Amino acid sequence: MLNSLSDVKKELKKKVKKKTSGLPDLSEKDKRWIQVIREQTRKLNQNNVTRTQAYFDFYLQHPEIQWAFLGHMVSRNVGWNMTDLKGDLLTKLLPERDQKDYFSFLERGSWLIFQDVYPQFLIYDLSVKGRKDMFHLLRYFHVSTFMETMWRYFWNSSDQTALAIAMVINEQSYLEKSLIQNQHYKKIVTGTVSFKMYEFLSLNNIIFPYCSGDKREKALITGAISRYFTSLHERILIGKKLYSLLFERKEILVKVLKWAHDHPHTGSRKDYWPHLFNDINESFPRSLYKLRVKNCELRKGAERLYSPPLKYAWADSPHEESESGDWFEDWRVLEYFHKEVNSDGEILTNYCKTIGKIELAVMAKEGLLLREEE
To answer: Fewer CB atoms < 10 Å away: N or C end of the chain?
Structure first.
């Protein structure tokens, strides 16, 4: 029985030495459950909006599964990154081919994580309702043996933090194997000059809006900066930072949760800052860009930045099945449980600078094009 993290360590060491082969026999009832779980996952894995809502709904049903809310808030950020590609600024910086490639990259990552994690949620729900460990079903969804061990540990210990950190490690390790190291995406996204520019402009602010409590439209924001997206180590640490921001500061959790409840995810940044973003394009399409924002406030007489809802920015995408295979090879990933991370949640200054940098980059690009035409 897995009652402590030292038990988990022993179990994972055994699994590294002896790779499990084959699948356990299933009852007819189990087979039906697998079909139901596959269908529910497929149905909700349509696009970023359906995934984001599914995470939130599950968290409301099972608040002990803290990653579900963390996943919901990070998924909102992925949606905003997707629609930014069709918004006022990035459409002027990135050619259409790059916009499509970046969206494909974000969408594939979002799809992969959901099809890995959501069956875990449904199997947990099944276990709770039946008051019986059903985690043997995880293997039929190619879930890592690492997570099978961690779910059993959680079932016995109710250690919510350990499960959440385990899920951060699992999802980022799975993403590394299935997306980041994929040669196709290395060629068209992460290995490109545009991606280097993307990182240079600090477009990877992860923000959690929350209610200020005084009825103003403008939400307050907390969050962290993910500086090296292609580094697995950095992504795991940023996941831990974001987790601590939400779940180690209860007053923030309550406010972020209220904001999320009051503002269904559409993919438009208008969801949190309607003073600065609009889901209707207010600017003239062919006019030269002029600075519109200063310190995250509109300049006098300026139009709001266009930030479309996801359903108007991108059509739903078909996906090929993911490759099976377990990322777990080294029990030392448990060391991430003990790594200290520090984050004060201050993101506003950097986020405002990011918008300013992008505006200047747009104006510089338009200026270069003008000079080339002269």
So the answer is: C
Under the banding of pLDDT at 50, 70 and 90, the label for residue 196 is confident
> For the residues 186-205, what does the mean pLDDT come to?
77
**273 class by beta-carbon count within 10 Å (0-12 exposed, 13-18 middle, 19+ buried):** buried
23 secondary structure, DSSP code: -
Alpha-carbon distance 12 to 41, whole Å?
28
Q: How many domains, the chain?
A: 1
Q: Is residue 21 part of a domain?
A: no
In a domain, 91, yes or no: yes
Find the length of the chain.
374
In this predicted structure, the answer to whether residue 19 has a pLDDT above a threshold of 90 is no
What would the mean pLDDT of 194-222 be, rounded to a whole number? Answer: 78
Classify residue 332: in a domain, yes or no. yes
Which residue type, as a one-letter code, is found at position 6?
S
Whether 22 is in a domain gets the answer no
Burial of residue 240 (CB within 10 Å: 0-12, 13-18, 19+) is buried
Q: Is the pTM of this model over 0.85?
A: yes
Looking at the chain, list the stretches that DSSP marks H as alpha helix, in order from N- to C-terminal side. 5-17, 28-44, 48-61, 67-84, 90-93, 96-130, 145-157, 160-175, 183-185, 193-200, 232-247, 250-262, 310-313, 348-373
Q: In terms of residue numbers, what domain contains 109?
A: 5-16+27-373
